[in-house]
């Protein structure tokens, strides 16, 4: 009964959040594409030849494109609004799938992956802003976790379909993502905060009434207007992020970036089938990929329920500790990979990877976006989110490019050992430096961060 009342009260906010995060489903199908696609290039009926080094560039170059997404966001999100900025992400995404569908050499793949990156970086910069501005304080955390739930759904779909269809068929099927996103999100209202910033009070009231499912929103709207006016008077800039006033905010952001990317999730997912070829189990690599996709899809649903009950900090600590355990176990397996024992305990490595996936989804993959969306004031939130995505893109590029090199030249145990160290360091940093923000308003969160030494 309580759950039914909760869903009824916040129904429209959840619907809009779901529609917005379909953009993350769309862009993460492009991330997942490399797992089945790279295997197809090593088969006898490869669409065209590429080298191992070219394959690593195919994976890594998407991160370069994502670096430019936030720049586009900075130019559009306050001018044309959150909604149109998010809808614009479909254009490079569609162009990328077409290039893969018609391309006959690796240059087409480079161009497509770069465009995918632009779409990816823009979506991840805009979606948290939109959700953070439309969701009520009591569900803001759970609404933000939809970012990762829909992202993992994108992986699951590609892992389930990709190995069993032809290379070019997979490209044309990729157009389903942008089509679904546009069809669902085009009907949603824009953020009332953006509409107030444009002095369109009538549209803001109509928008907020729809989100809150109430005609009595004047009090909340008045509070929003005061907040927007203060933000405009203190309009921030990208350079303002580097001021001493936001030292603690930046520190927390860097810890979350480190945990999100130095535990290797994006790279491991991008090379999933390649990695599974090195693990001896009764399942085929493509079957293990499907299991992995299903498990991570289920795993990220739990934070949506727990984040506003347990809090951000406990989930982040549990997540980083579990991630470290899973990665360390995989490292040990790959160290003994050439021995007879390895063939008998491959299931241990596969289980450890699933523990890693579940643990990562429990906090690092989900709660991170909840925290980022609430620790910065409105006047610089867009700049902060853009910076988060841009720094993350640089880290992902470095990790993705080096992964193939270490895999080929040393062995899988080295990158997995590095990722496990990343998880352990994250756990320590979260414990000492990230406070709990559960149940606090955005203004309360920012005061808490400012006071924290």
Report the sheet-strand fraction.
under 5%
CATH class designation: Mainly Alpha
Full CATH superfamily name: MFS general substrate transporter like domains
The best one-word shape is globular
- Structural class, please? mainly alpha
Overall description:
By secondary structure, the chain is mainly α. It has one domain (2-188, 234-451): MFS general substrate transporter like domains (Growth Hormone, Chain: A, Up-down Bundle), CATH 1.20.1250. Helices cover 77% and strands 0% of the residues. It is built from 24 helices and no strands. It has helices at 2-9, 11-41, 52-76, 82-87, 90-102, 106-134, 140-161, 167-173, 176-185, 192-197, 201-212, 218-233, 247-261, 265-270, 272-276, 285-299, 301-306, 312-335, 340-344, 346-362, 367-372, 378-409, 413-433, 442-451. Helix 13 runs antiparallel to helix 23, helix 16 packs parallel to helix 20 (346-362) and helix 18 (312-335) runs antiparallel to helix 20. It is globular, with a radius of gyration of 22 Å. The relative contact order is 0.14. The mean pLDDT is 85.
Supply database-style keywords.
0% strand; 453 residues; mainly alpha; single chain; Growth Hormone, Chain: A; 24 helices
Quick structural overview:
This protein has 453 residues and is mainly α. It is built from 24 helices and no strands.
What order do the helices and strands come in, and which of them pair?
Blueprint lengths: L1 H8 L1 H31 L10 H25 L5 H6 L2 H13 L3 H29 L5 H22 L5 H7 L2 H10 L6 H6 L3 H12 L5 H16 L13 H15 L3 H6 L1 H5 L8 H15 L1 H6 L5 H24 L4 H5 L1 H17 L4 H6 L5 H32 L3 H21 L8 H10 L2
Helix pairs in contact: 2-6, 2-7, 2-9, 3-6, 3-22, 5-6, 5-8, 6-7, 6-22, 7-16, 13-22, 13-23, 16-20, 18-20, 18-23
């Amino acid at each position: 009964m309580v759950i039914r009342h909760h869903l009824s009260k916040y129904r429209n906010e959840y619907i809009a959040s779901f529609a917005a995060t379909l953009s993350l489903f769309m862009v993460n199908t492009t991330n997942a594409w490399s797992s089945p696609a790279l295997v197809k290039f090593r088969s006898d009926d490869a669409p065209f030849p590429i080298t191992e080094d070219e394959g690593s560039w195919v994976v890594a170059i998407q991160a370069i494109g994502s670096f430019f997404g936030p720049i586009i966001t900075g130019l559009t999100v306050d001018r044309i609004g959150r909604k149109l900025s998010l809808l614009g992400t479909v254009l490079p995404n569609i162009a990328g799938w077409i290039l893969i569908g018609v391309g006959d050499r690796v240059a087409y793949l480079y161009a497509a992956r770069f465009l995918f990156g632009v779409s990816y970086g823009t979506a991840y910069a805009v979606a948290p802003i939109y959700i953070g501005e439309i969701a009520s304080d009591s569900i803001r955390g759970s609404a933000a976790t939809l970012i990762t739930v829909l992202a993992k759904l994108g992986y699951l779909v590609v892992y389930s379909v990709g190995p069993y269809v032809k290379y070019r068929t997979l490209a044309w099927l990729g157009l389903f993502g942008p089509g679904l996103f546009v069809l669902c999100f085009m009907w949603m209202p824009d953020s009332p905060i953006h509409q107030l910033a444009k002095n369109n009070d009538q549209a803001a009231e109509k928008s907020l009434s729809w989100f809150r499912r109430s005609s009595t929103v004047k009090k909340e709207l008045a509070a929003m207007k005061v907040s927007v006016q203060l933000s405009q008077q203190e309009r921030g800039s990208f350079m303002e992020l580097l001021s001493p006033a936001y030292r603690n905010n930046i520190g927390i952001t860097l810890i979350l970036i480190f945990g999100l990317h130095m535990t290797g999730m994006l790279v491991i997912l991008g090379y999933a089938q390649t990695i599974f070829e090195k693990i001896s189990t009764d399942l085929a690599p493509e079957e293990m990929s499907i299991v992995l996709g299903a498990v991570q899809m289920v795993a990220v649903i739990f934070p949506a329920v727990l984040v506003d009950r347990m809090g951000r900090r406990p989930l982040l600590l549990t997540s980083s500790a579990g991630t470290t355990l899973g990665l360390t176990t995989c490292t040990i397996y790959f160290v003994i990979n050439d021995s007879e024992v390895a063939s008998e305990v491959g299931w241990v490595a596969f289980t450890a990877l699933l523990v890693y996936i579940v643990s990562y989804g429990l906090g690092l993959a989900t709660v991170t976006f909840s925290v980022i969306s609430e620790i910065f004031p409105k006047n610089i939130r867009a700049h902060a989110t853009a910076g988060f995505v841009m720094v993350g893109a640089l880290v992902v590029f470095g990790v993705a490019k080096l992964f193939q090199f270490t895999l080929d030249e040393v062995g899988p145990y080295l990158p997995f050992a590095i990722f496990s160290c990343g998880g352990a360091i994250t756990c320590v940093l979260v414990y000492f430096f990230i406070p709990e923000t559960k149940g606090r308003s955005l203004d309360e969160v920012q005061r808490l961060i400012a006071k924290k030494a």
